[in-house]
Amino acid sequence: MATVIPLEALSKRKETSALENLTALVAEDIAAVNQLIVQRMESRVEMIPRLAGHIIASGGKRLRPLLTLASTRLCGYQGQRHRKLAASVEFIHTATLLHDDVVDESELRRGNASANALFGNEASVLVGDFLFSRAFELMVEDGSIDVLRILAHASAVISEGEVHQLLTSNDSGTSEQAYLEVVRDKTAELFAAACRIGAVVAGRTSSEEEALRTFGLNLGIAFQIVDDVLDYSAKQERLGKTVGTDLREGKVTLPVILAIHRGNEAERAFWKRALDDSNPREGDFTYAQNLLLRHGALRDSIGRARHYGAIARDALGVFPESPIKDALLDVVNFTIEREY
Amino acid sequence: MATVIPLEALSKRKETSALENLTALVAEDIAAVNQLIVQRMESRVEMIPRLAGHIIASGGKRLRPLLTLASTRLCGYQGQRHRKLAASVEFIHTATLLHDDVVDESELRRGNASANALFGNEASVLVGDFLFSRAFELMVEDGSIDVLRILAHASAVISEGEVHQLLTSNDSGTSEQAYLEVVRDKTAELFAAACRIGAVVAGRTSSEEEALRTFGLNLGIAFQIVDDVLDYSAKQERLGKTVGTDLREGKVTLPVILAIHRGNEAERAFWKRALDDSNPREGDFTYAQNLLLRHGALRDSIGRARHYGAIARDALGVFPESPIKDALLDVVNFTIEREY
Question: N or C, which end of chain B is more exposed by having fewer CB within 10 Å?
Fold first, then answer.
């Protein structure tokens, strides 16, 4: 690691290049998926594409549909069925984002005004339902009952995870196990399903389906842990990213759980108050960051994420070497080694 | 109609007996559906069955699953597949009720505290999502892509109708046509799908599928129009039913549209103010009832409902006489001739 490139520049390059590599390998597919997404959010009711377009455009890296596309290609599939299914996965994800923002009363999503802030909670709930139904329509067009089973089940598990998370909100006594279960359900299950359906479309063996499920599930857990770390990251703050949302919303995430377990009485009292307080005090966030640093909570959370990343990487062992496989392995590394 | 039975008693008897007859004819089926409903709302997350149970128990007459059961039996089907699908239809309906109450900020549902009032909007949104996913899991277990297509499409149309309704809320310039389109989408489409899948399960011809779709769609439109009439009904008010909700929520329903079209300037100004006003004034509802009476708006709305009821009844003409058919025809009459 002896390099003269400044760390921040390196990290930025690493970050973009891992996903860019993967995107480049499925460039035609992802272009088709983007087109499908635009087509299928059409409606006679003009507000629907406007609202759906807002969140989909503001919308991230298309990581989940990319996983579906890449997993299918990893399995040697040459057709185009996976495109509709990748769009379907993105619609499910978008629907949950819309409902999440309503539940969390978020004003911002990825630094932009959230759909509920712009269009109201009512429309966000209903357009979420619409996208969810459209996701199923896309799956039905594909016609695979196995895919439908996997994604219907994933959708039910996601809602269970969201309700579970709602119940642990503001509860500074949340255990690491409860946290992991929520993460698995609300985030990792869709990653798992997105990958797994690749093997189903390609008609591969159940052991390959299981390998991709394992890959997606553990990548998803690692992804969410790191996301939760980044929300307290001083570096992210310097880069102008939104931080501090989880503390404000009273979300009890892994770094906080570690800090609570390792802290003294006074510190626990702080966390209890800060997580419970609907009107957080000036300086709460900075003090929280100090506690996390003092107890190595961010560092050790990343350590936990590495564990899941390792499981994900090993899961791909059953697949022969290929550029797609390398790119997927790089995505695991990128996911975890984002600067915090 | 020379009878000595008091009108109210007669109406009450008519009302219960039409649905009771139908329920009795599919008694075993509906018992199995109720069991499935309880089973399938189970979750590791204990709040889910509690919240779902609340709305399902407070829950009405099971009209939609009854329609699925009866339509399937009308087609001569002897198996049990329709039970899961009827439960699925009820779950979709329940999910939309939960989301509706959040969107409308309703405190009451059928005279009881609504789920959002008891458990919060957040949980209601998420448990709605859960039930919706469970609905698809049930369909997937059944395995018919045709049924999945019909219900996925119906679900998308329902959300479109709900968004459309949201946009026409508080708009006293809403046309009868726009009202009908909303009713068709948000209510009648699920009635249509619930009936139509009966023919699909029974493997009947597409003309029978179309007949049942026509029956359900027009019954659904009639049902919603009458529901909208009952919300202004003096008799319902005397019977202790909840009335006045639509005016309070600024919903522009058919009786109101007729009264607006037939009213003078001053009356239109009243409607505009009353529908727009988030804090309705004392006496608004009584004055609205007077205007509706003066212009025959409730009576003529029921007249419109009779039109759709007639289409529904005629649609069943392609099916041979049977007790199930008679009971379905009675349901149309009961739906429309509820006292207002």
Answer: N
